[in-house]
Amino acid sequence: MKKHFLLPLLLSMFSSFALANEAELVLDQTKIPTDKASVLRGAEQVATVCGACHGLKYIQYRNLLELGVPKETVDAWRGDKPLNTAMQPQMAPADAQAAFGVVPPDLSLMAIAREGREHYLYSYLMGYKANEKGEIENRIFTVTKMPDILGISGAADDKQREEIGAKAKDITAFLNWAADPHGEDRKNLGIYVMIYLFIMTILLILWKKQIWRKVDEMGPV
Amino acid sequence: MSGKDNVVNPERRNFLGTVTTVAGVGGAAVAAWPFVNSMNPSGDVLSNATTEVDLKNIPEGGMHTVAWQGKPVFILHRNAEEIKKMQELSTIEPVADEKRVQDPKWLVVVGICTHLGCVPNRAENGWKCACHGSQYDDSGRVTHGPAPHNLEVPPYKFVSADKIVIG
Amino acid sequence: MFKRTLAWIDQRFPLTHFVKDTAEYGTPRNLSYWWNFGSLAGVVLVLQLVTGIFLAMHYKADIATAFDSIQHIMRDVNYGWLLRYMHSTGASAFFAIIYIHMARTLFYGSYRAPRELLWWTGQGLLLLLMATAFMGYLLPWGQMSYWGAAVITNLFRATPFFGEQVVHWLRGDFQVGDATLTRFYALHFLFPFIIVGAVLVHLIALHTVKSSNPSGLELKQKDIIPFHPYFTIKDLVGVGAYLMVFSVFVFFVPNTLIEAANNIPANPMQTPAHIVPEWYFLPFYAILRSVPDLAGGVVAMGLSVLIFAALPYLDRSRISGGAVYRPVYRAMFFVFLVNMVVLGYVGAVPPTDRTIIIGQVATLVYFGTFLFLPFVSKKEEAFLIKRGLPPAVMDSLK
């Protein structure tokens, strides 16, 4: 009796796993670079291309200096705005609303604000494709109002695809930094903390053994 | 020592114990730093540490107040007569006027009374503090107590003929 | 000088007595590392308090600025990211530790007489912890914060007659809003101090009934050793090991514990496609969803947490200890544990016909474990006595 009941239950559990996977979007799990050069190239893309419509309200120009963008470049991007102003979109939100029907979202946290995080972002940027009717669609976010800025839908050959992919990776790398500007410091500090805690725990274990020697000699209760 | 080493009163003051204790206390002390430091001025506060002032908009005889690190800074555009008058040294804390200005036309002082920190009001030929009646001349020097010192001159520099950066 | 100062204090306050009492607290020498989790919970409580107070110096409880103030902490405050990640990771760690602490109590039967009050104060602490965590989760004012609070406060609609009024009273608004955020902040600040007080009560109860031990039997006097230095050092070993696991999360993968949707500011006009509570609420959330009726679901969920309090009376076996000498009880324990994981899974995935069925079965298993325990434990006792038990256990029955 019991068996008859358990088996279908187990089966249904496994099949529900499969079902859940089917319904989900398949994201491109390409590794997003973390090296400084990529991040800086991404900064350029975001400031000059994405920046036309999107702002980064939690990133101020001074933060770009901290990141390592050269002073002259930052000065060129900010014009006469002070260093401690946030990166605003060049297009006023109201104009964007009129042109696209929606205000382009802020990009400060975009790399961590969608399920799938950086992979979602990369897949989205690379997700444009012409459908049967010849319209450009995005397979990740079907109702997006953003045009295919990087031009992946019109890529002629693999070489061009690769170039566009590299740009998308750089942009994602920069937005990863923008979402978590202390990530690098955090990991570096973390290594020292781990080393310290490891040594400390070893010391404590040794000391514990020493203190417990007489008790341990007593054997089990 | 070894005689006392039993289950109820085990030996525990030794090299290993000392090393572990020192390492633990040291680690805890270092770990306290992020907490202490989190109370220091944050990045955005520090980024406001300098203030740019465009002098073009201040007419002769006019005064502008700008905020620098959250404090009021008086910028006084003095005319020739006022400059001449300020050459006298009849103040409580005598400091030559030329030591308090970079360009005699422009006086830049922190607008906080050196007595108890009120902001003095512009009066004829200087400033008067409403709180306790201290008076300052057009060089920001105290002419009448109770303020003990002249108004502070903040660090600033001319980045062009009509633009200064305070801080 | 020191002695005289101490004497002066002792005349007015029992300091020496207090320190001695704590240090010499007689502890069974056979406690395994499973007994570390109580003191570990204390360490996490202190860390949460300290990081929380430093975060409070920068956080703003106002719907217009709350989200921004978190980003301010993460970006501009010196080591603000460390404080915040310690606090957000610490919340999960707290539950993980408490759940292990509870699992140990269940496995070894530490809730049984005379430790009922110890167990109940622990229950109270769990409820306080849940309330504190729930209110703290609203503070970042992200999408998950908002909708989590909206859904949970809505549960109180199940209140007879005054449902709507109670919900509005809790929120101070028709929707979760500014008033809700500010009061959650005030209470999130207050509750930890109540927890500290409740921990003291828990400890006083512990020092009265003494620690249980893995043998399940009362130990002889020679097997009782002073808490200090034996268990101070053993607890510190546990703290060291814990801090390593904690640091891996804080420094290397802190965002795994923060839902992606919570990086989007709260939007009362749009619910995220899939709302999930934090992992530590998932099993209870699954029970809520398994009952196809609002009031019934709420009652089932409340009961699922409170029913633990009845355990000292549900477990009617006279065989001492928990699972050590009792194979059936042990089997029930592991079934319960696996069932908990199943419930957690059900709570985490979007509801489908299948997961709802699985959830309902798991809910029945959950409550069934408690309901059958009185009969099972009695039958098991008879069976084991007939089959024969170690002499020490038999002695304890007399």
List keywords for this structure.
heterotrimer, B: about 170 residues, alpha+beta, Rieske Iron-sulfur Protein, 3-stranded antiparallel β-sheet, about 20% helix, about 25% strand, elongated, C: about 400 residues, mainly alpha, Cytochrome Bc1 Complex, Chain C, two-stranded antiparallel sheet, 16 helices, globular
End-to-end CA span of chain A: 44 Å
- Residue-averaged pLDDT of chain A: 87
Strand order in the sheet with the most strands of chain A:
1-2
* Name given to the CATH architecture of the largest domain in chain B: 3-layer Sandwich
**Number of discrete helical segments of chain A:** 9
- Give me the number of helical elements of chain B: 3
The structural domain count of chain B equals 2
The CATH superfamily of the largest domain in chain A appears as Cytochrome c-like domain
Explain the overall architecture.
The complex is a heterotrimer of chains A (221), B (167) and C (398). Chain A is mainly α. Chain A contains nine helices and four strands. Chain A has helices spanning 2-23, 36-48, 61-67, 71-78, 93-100, 117-125, 158-179, 183-211, 213-217; strands at residues 56-60, 86-87, 128-130, 136-138. In chain A, a hairpin with a 5-residue loop joins β3 and β4 (136-138). In chain A, α2 packs across α7 and α6 runs antiparallel to α7. Chain B is an alpha+beta fold. Chain B has two domains: 2-37, no CATH class; 46-166, 3-layer Sandwich (Rieske Iron-sulfur Protein). Helices cover 20% and strands 25% of the residues of chain B. Chain B has helices at residues 15-37, 43-47, 80-85, and strands at residues 51-54, 63-68, 71-77, 106-110, 121-123, 126-128, 135-136, 142-144, 156-160, 163-166. Chain C folds into two domains: 30-275, Cytochrome Bc1 Complex, Chain C (Up-down Bundle), CATH 1.20.810; 281-398, no CATH class. Chain C has helices spanning 2-12, 15-23, 37-56, 66-75, 80-107, 116-138, 143-154, 163-171, 178-209, 227-252, 282-290, 294-306, 311-314, 327-348, 353-387, 391-397; strands at residues 26-28, 224-226. The model of chain C has no long low-confidence stretch (mean pLDDT 95). By secondary structure, chain C is mainly alpha-helical. The chains are: A mainly alpha (221), B alpha+beta (167), C mainly alpha (398). Chains A and C meet through α1 and α8 of A and α4, α5, α10 and α15 of C.
